[in-house]
Amino acid sequence: MGFFSKQFASVIEWNEGSEGTLFWKFQSDEIKKDSRLIVRPGQDAIFLYNGKVEGIFTEEGNFEVESEIIPFLTTLKSFKFGFNTPLRAEVLFINTKEVLVKWGTKNAINLQAPGLPGGMPIRAFGTFSCKIGDYNVVIDKLAGIRQSYTVDDVKERIITDLNPMLMSWIGKEGRDMFNLQMDAGKIGDGICEELNKEMSELGIAITNFTIESFSYPEEVKKMQEKAAAQAMVGDVNKYQQIAMADSFGKGNGGGMMGDMVGLQMGMAMGQQMVNQMNMNNQMNMNSQMSMGGQQPTGGAAPKFCPNCGTPTNGANFCGNCGNKLV
Predict the structure, then answer these.
(1) What would the CATH number be for the domain defined by 99-216?
(2) Where are the beta strands (DSSP E) in the chain?
């Protein structure tokens, strides 16, 4: 009896040192008579004997192997512990929780774009969720050769196949490459379906795939910002003048040159506004003449020449271009 009393009880458990682990295999040369199995919340425990599933335990708790586990195993119900006959089996712990993983394209994706022979390089970033989907496939394809399998393993496999999938789904339905974020939901759903089908061959399920953002080259971002500024200004000439002033100011470190350019810009824009106002006045006068048969006669010349915008100072003829004013 003294010999038998020295058989120390062992504990079969998984402390889940990393939340990113999808399964972990408990390996031991022997499971002793007094061993206990601990199944924690979010875990399943699978007993394997000679590489085959003997039993799956999904309820959390603390169980005695001899009295509570062995009787429920498939082919080991009659197994009898003895001093020289410990149970030689493996226990595979499964993480039943869904794990969220961040991803990003490994290399830029070159999308076809007019005028760009090499394509438009973009990157994408987001998240995906995964979990163990099929225990039998996991045991057959992974657990036989791996001690554990992590989300990093899943991520590495996904990133390898992600670029061609992104190119394929972005290219569908003639999507605008400069407004991809609007279709990010549809693109993500399509990729999720493909990835889930591919990873199911390993027993892994991809439950969600989200594209949070697309990243364009800095040159393209600057072009978009300028286009937005142009839309706000409205006039191409004004936009070009503003862009020129901004370029001069930055190129010369600001200072006097920037102030001079800014002043000239203000004067030029003011003159352009005056010219526009005179053109509007001229159009109104022409309209009145067409309606009344002649130009209104009041004896007073316009304040600005409708032809060149020069102040008239009450003269009958423009002193700059000679245009008749009255």
Answers:
(1) 3.30.479.30
(2) 11-12, 21-26, 36-39, 43-49, 52-57, 61-64, 90-95, 99-104, 109-113, 116-132, 148-150, 204-215
